[in-house]
Design goal:
The structure is a single chain. This protein has three helices and four strands. With 117 residues, it is α+β, with helices and mostly antiparallel strands. The protein has one domain. The radius of gyration is 19 Å and the shape is elongated. The N and C termini lie far apart (49 Å). The relative contact order is 0.16.
């Protein structure tokens, strides 16, 4: 499943990306006739979005949202305060927890090495 990056934010060590891929098995049971027609014509696309947080190039947090229907997938990132903001917060929380766990493991290993010498 190939994801296409549609939005990126960089700091010195952290990169946050929003990417999407076509929904392989969309659940359109909720869709009305007009929406289904627009999907059929290609006016709308059904995608899965992924927000990824990388620290120093290493993926540390991710969040996914499937069955999303958009005429322009870039609109997803423009909707402030919605799913996109929630996904960024979730991915950052996961990354923060992972970075904290990594730091704790490194400290533990350093302590063990120091005790052995």
């Amino acid at each position: 499943m190939a994801f296409i990056t549609i939005w990126t934010f960089h700091t010195k060590r952290v990169t946050v990306t929003l990417a999407c891929t076509p929904e392989m098995d969309p659940d359109l049971s909720w869709a009305d006739a007009e929406t289904l027609e627009k999907i059929e014509r290609g006016d709308y696309v059904a995608v899965t979005f992924r927000v990824r947080v990388a620290v120093d190039g290493r993926t540390m947090g991710e969040d996914y949202l499937g069955n999303s229907i958009y005429a322009d997938v870039r609109d997803f990132a423009r909707e402030r305060g919605g799913y996109f903001s929630d996904m960024v917060a979730n991915a950052i929380a996961e990354a923060t927890a992972d970075v904290g766990a990594s730091a704790a493991r490194a400290s533990h290993h350093a302590l063990i090495s120091a005790e052995e010498h």
